[in-house]
Amino acid sequence: xxxxxxxxxQQPKIALVLGVTGGIGNAxxxxxxxxxxxxxxxxxxxxxxxxxxxxxxxxxxxxxxxxDAMQEADVIAAAEGAAIIVHAxxxxxxxNWATLVVPMIENSIAAARxxxxxxxxxGTVYNYxxxxxxxLKETSPQNPSTRKGAIRVQLENRLRTAAQSGVRxxxxxxxxxxxxxxxxxxxxxxxxxxxxxxxxxxxxxxRGIGHQWAYLPDVAETMMQLIxxxxxxxxxxxxxxxxxxxxxxxxxxAAIGRVTGQADLKVKGFPWWLLPLAAxxxxxxxxxxxxxxxxxxxxxxxxxxxLKLLGNEPHTGWDQAVHSTLAGMACIKE
Length: 334
Fold this sequence. Notes:
By secondary structure, the chain is of the alpha/beta class. The chain has 13 helices and 14 strands. It is globular, with a radius of gyration of 20 Å. One of its GO terms (molecular function) is aldehyde dehydrogenase (NAD+) activity.
């Protein structure tokens, strides 16, 4: 009996990560593995992911499960025995948000209800409108002015409602993501070109306008520290991160310049005028145009509630974070 109890205690906790091939999903998965968790990943081509690891002679440590986040039965099966479900999945290329985002969170809710897990969701600032600007607290009203923001509010409302019937969730809200393996982001898509040396930066904002950034490993570590304080969390709980606050819109560019050894790095303006012309043909351009307001005014997430619980916020210095990001993009060598 004593040996059986010891074996049970040594069994790792299980986490299901939806969207593990994305930036934040991958970052959280790495933190979970480092903490000794068993990480499962639901993927529509799980056999190919496993075969690719074997071909490369690598072992990610991830347990691949065949399935689709749009299929409730697949998510429930993959989540069996899980303590947390990281819901980091989004439709690729921003396509079909209105028809895919809400069904996917409903499937995660069904899975969490079946296995008793807490859902962990990376939050966005899209939820807020002008009545909440410029300082965004967890209690700020969520009256978005964009289509994408309305969908995000609906998504979080589903979690809030589910909490009333015992499905726990945690939302960690942060600024613009940057970091290794983050392909679908302003840093890697709008400012620089992956795989090419840095000769110039295309900056979407104006000098003097603050902007909030979030380094993926810092976001993942924050999530982990909150997960490890389960007893302090409400059934539905939300925390904001400060991340990397660029007070005047020059600090990110300056960090890129220092890391690449270019103190006089050329800065070009983002071609906002082009987006209305390209939007009808390219979904990404339509989505970028919709969130353009985030670069025209300084919006800042208030992290005082997070600090009260954790004591401090995980934070990597500007230059180290940017260096890691550029190396991950193959813009510089490690």
